[in-house]
Amino acid sequence: MGQVLDGNQMREASCTEELRAMRDALDILGGKWKLMILRYLANRELQEIYFKKMEREIQGISAKVLTKELRDLELNLLVARQPSEDPVKVFYKITAYGKSVFPVTESLVSWGLEYREKVKQELAALVK
After folding, report:
1. How far apart are CA 103 and CA 87, in angstroms?
2. Beta bridge partners of residue 50, listed in sequence order
3. How far apart are alpha carbons 23 and 21 in whole angstroms?
4. Cys bridge to 98: 11, 78, 90, 93, which one at CB 3.0-4.6 A?
């Protein structure tokens, strides 16, 4: 169970509090693209990442969806939008707060890799 601050003391969170916290996290991070965008920006933290580059490199995302997701991430303080000297280009950076999501994405990547391997093994066993 998670911990919550109650007054000035820590206590175990109730199941309801944990489910609310999970709902809050899913509201902010949910959907097909938000975690991928955060992971993409975290992996390219030392680069200048502009909108068109993201649109090109994140396969399958449309400009309209990327715009919406970046606005949501910016609103929730996970991504910062930085205008450039070129008025056509806008750069995006993951914020320090956005980096706090990295353990979540790391766990999802690890689980996804394990899952893919398990499915491959199961399918190979069925073919035999």
Report:
1. 35
2. 91
3. 5
4. 78
